[in-house]
Design goal:
By secondary structure, the chain is mainly beta. It has one domain: Jelly Rolls, CATH 2.60.120. It contains no helices and ten strands. The mean pLDDT is 94. Strand 4 and strand 5 form a beta hairpin. The strands form two sheets. It has a five-stranded antiparallel sheet with strand order 8-7-6-1-10, with no helix packed on it. It has a five-stranded antiparallel sheet with strand order 5-4-3-2-9, with no helix packed on it. It starts with 9 loop residues before the first strand and ends with a strand.
Length: 152
């Protein structure tokens, strides 16, 4: 989406579930069109979370990559809708229509686009590699994605 759908502020949501399996993580994020940071990770897991029981959201900002973390206990091996709403004054994180966390400082003002990815093994030295219990295929299943512009 980086070439066609960059915007400053708005709402992004997607309906998803992920198969269990140690050593595989997922992340839904807003990535800047140019430069880094900022970065808004609004649904990110650890590769050590084989049973899919916790997601986190992280706002990366500043030249030294300062981070604001939020954690959510949820079984995301079942279907859920995760969303982020980004305005000039707030970033709010939602699960199944309910706000579970907000950030009101260090709000970015650069155009960004949606990325959804999976990663195998360690990420930035965190997590765990696949082991003998990891299935051959570990899927991140996405039913739909929705992007809305900010209207004030």
């Amino acid at each position: 989406m980086g070439r066609s759908l960059n915007q400053t502020y708005g709402a992004w949501s997607f309906r998803f579930r992920m198969d269990p399996g140690v050593g595989v993580k997922m992340c839904a994020l807003l990535w800047p069109r140019q430069g880094w940071p900022p970065e808004i990770d609004f649904a990110e897991s650890s590769s050590a979370d084989a049973n899919r029981r916790e997601l986190s959201s992280t706002l990366h900002y500043g030249s030294s990559n300062t981070m604001l973390h939020r954690h959510l206990a949820v079984d995301y091996s079942a279907w859920h809708t995760m969303a982020v709403r980004w305005t000039p004054r707030r970033i709010s994180y939602r699960l199944d229509g309910h706000m579970w966390a907000t950030v009101t400082s260090h709000i970015p003002d650069k155009p960004m686009h949606l990325g959804i990815q999976t990663t195998v093994g360690l990420s930035n030295g965190n997590g765990q590699p696949p082991d003998s219990t990891t299935p051959t295929h570990v899927g991140l299943h996405i039913a739909w994605v929705r992007v809305s512009r900010y209207t004030g």
